[in-house]
Automatic annotation (TrEMBL), chains A, B:
Record-level GO cellular component terms: nucleus
Name of the molecule in the record: Nucleosome assembly protein
Biased composition (Acidic residues): 125-142, 339-378
BP GO terms, sorted: nucleosome assembly
Organism: Orbilia brochopaga
Any Pfam family: NAP
Protein family: Belongs to the nucleosome assembly protein (NAP) family.
Disordered, as annotated region: 124-158, 286-307, 339-393
PANTHER family xref list: TESTIS-SPECIFIC Y-ENCODED PROTEIN (PTHR11875)
Basic and acidic residues: bias regions: 379-393
Length: 393, 393
């Protein structure tokens, strides 16, 4: 056959903004260590020797081939490595210039985002120019005219702006939709704006602005992604860690937990008492308490993998909000942006997430102690979605 | 649960060079169609109506929600679409500026690539500065000194340059390695250089330079990737198609085919005759006859998928050569670059490709006609790798 199965190494999504940040996998962490090691050699030989030990596991895949070459050829290879180092410096400069270019264009995008914010929140109506520009070729011009006539009559009765704009946009976004629970929606309806800012150091912050609501007192919730100071292999920026704002939940309104009330009956006295405990639950708002990258070598391999997955998801969500949701929110709101997602993504995104509801395992524990157990979330509403999930297992 | 399985929508590899080109999937083809449609509306309404029919399948996921909104709100949404169009123009400008930045840096990389070419081919020895820069921290300085002493003595006996530099680099690259057969290696040993150039229009060409060899007369083999003239959604460049040089194979040396000789015995006369036929085989050199993107709607879904996969592989190979192999060839040669590949990629790349040897199905056909069949490739050498694969099925 002339062609083989594809090794899936094309980028699955195409970041519209181009300076890259990659998650600090084993590989890039090692690279980072190497860069650090170079600077810290004199100060801390023990550290360097530890790092070299770790590197040894990965380097040397050539399994002796290069070592077996005549010295004069090895010398040429060493020379090429020197040339490559010059190249790497240029690559880092390039990524830096791309980042500056991003910032330059971000400044041009900003007034458009501001206009969007005003239209979405009913502070401003769109201009005739924007409506003409936004009317698709072939779309009924009469229809638009008709809207105009109806306007005056309707204006009073209709909500200002575009209701649930950001919630709807999030629910159409493949990765974000999966984090939004039914309970979250009541809070996310209050989203006034989602925007971003670049940090002074490499990184960015995502700002979620809310109108007054029954859930928390924060006016904005901010999630900040920090890149490492040193560029990685090929000049890419590397994620360092993320931080989120503490959410000031109003009493009994924390969407990231639920209260389990259990009636316990004493087997001897037959008296009952009610025990309440707080159980963490799935919620978009967990986005603001991101996982911490591993700092040392402790942790089992399974734990490492789970943490790695959680970190990857956290970066993915941040990246999707920065590169897709914010730049083209109206296309997410209408659902048109979905057609530009690569198919693999859609399939995986839509049909994942059925099994492995680990936290439901606690169901089994409840019967043990002759106790009636009742679940209620803090707002007292039934949790339909999660109930359905329980039945599956 | 606070975190769900990852929907794999982070870029699996991080392109060091940043203006994006994406393969023209259904989605981006549709986008392209839309752009074309806008310009061609007046000239060809039938075409536009056909295209709109296709778009209809994808757009409208909101299933009536937006249509159900009061006209004044729909008007605001139309206004936001207008704002979004301004944003799209800026995004295209941004991608254009990134491409210019790429070209600016490419000019800085070029002298380094030229130096590499000279060292690899024994035209020049590396400078002392390059060797010092290329000597890793902690690496034995005495060792390097020792190389120097040995140099004079060895210089005569040893090959000039770095033998099989590009072949070894290719064989360490996950995606490329899978395309290189045992037979190909004899030809790829003659690679003198792999380099790239940007086209005047959006796109690039990969240039494979060979020394004189027994396989073909071309001094260079060129593969050109063309992007579409219009940017796609989010300003990305979109692959249009690729073209490859015709390879002038020396007689009997075509690595992309093999000659099957079959002895056929006439059942009545018991006389035998030998029938030869040319069968296409897997070879890296098929890279120069890339698949053609679909132009119309014919073709079954299975055919479409197969073509889509072949196109994706072709783009992946081109991208990997442009973004990974050429920029950091020495790291591929030594294998060090592998550690910076994302793990998923390695796993998939290394353990794929076992089953589904479709073309081996012809084995079954041969017995039917009472014929002895013998395979030989044109050079008469046994094809160990392929033989091994046959046994598995």
């Amino acid at each position: 056959m002339p062609f083989i199965r594809t090794p899936q190494n094309t980028p699955l999504n195409n970041a519209p903004i181009s300076s890259h940040a990659v998650k600090p996998q084993v590989s890039s962490i090692e690279e980072e260590d190497r860069v650090l090691a170079a600077g810290m050699l004199a100060q801390n030989p023990a550290l360097v020797s530890m790092i070299q030990g770790r590197l040894g596991k990965l380097i040397g895949r050539s399994s002796g081939y290069i070592e077996s070459l005549p010295p004069v050829i090895r010398r040429r290879i060493t020379g090429l490595k020197g040339v490559q180092k010059e190249h790497s410096k240029l690559e880092a400069d390039f990524q830096e210039e791309v980042l500056q270019l991003e910032k330059k264009y971000f400044a041009k995008f900003k007034p458009l985002y501001e206009k969007r914010r005003k239209i979405v929140n009913g502070i401003e109506e769109p201009s005739e120019e924007d409506i003409t520009a936004g009317t698709a070729e072939g779309e009924d011009a009469d229809e638009t005219a008709k809207m105009d006539e109806d306007n005056a009559a309707e204006q009073q009765e209709v909500d200002p702006g575009i209701p649930e704009f950001w919630l709807s946009a999030m629910k159409n976004s493949t990765s974000l939709a999966e984090t939004v629970t039914d309970r979250d929606e009541a809070a996310l309806k209050h989203l006034v704006d989602i925007r971003m800012e670049y940090l002074e150091r490499p990184g960015f912050r995502l700002i979620f602005e809310f109108s007054e609501n029954e859930f928390f007192t924060n006016k904005t919730l901010v999630k900040t992604y920090f890149y490492q100071e040193e560029n990685g292999y090929g000049g890419d920026f590397i994620y360092d860690h993320a931080e989120g704002d503490k959410i000031d939940w109003k009493p009994g309104k924390d969407l990231t937990v639920r209260i389990e009330s259990k009636k316990q009956r004493n087997k001897n006295t037959k008296q009952t008492r009610i025990v309440k405990r707080t159980v963490p639950v799935e919620s978009f708002f967990n986005f603001f308490t991101p996982p911490k990258p591993p700092t040392s070598e402790d942790g089992s391999q399974a734990e490492d993998e789970e943490l790695e997955q959680r970190l990857e998801l956290d970066y993915t969500l941040g990246e999707d909000i920065k590169e897709k949701l914010i730049p083209r929110a109206v296309d997410w709101y209408t659902g048109e942006a979905l057609q530009f997602e690569e198919l693999e993504e859609l399939e995986e995104g839509e049909f994942d997430d059925e099994d492995d509801d680990d936290e439901e395992a606690s169901d089994d524990d409840r019967d043990e102690d002759d106790e009636d157990s009742e679940e209620e979330d803090e707002s007292g509403k039934p949790k339909q979605q999660e109930a359905a999930e329980c039945k599956q297992s």
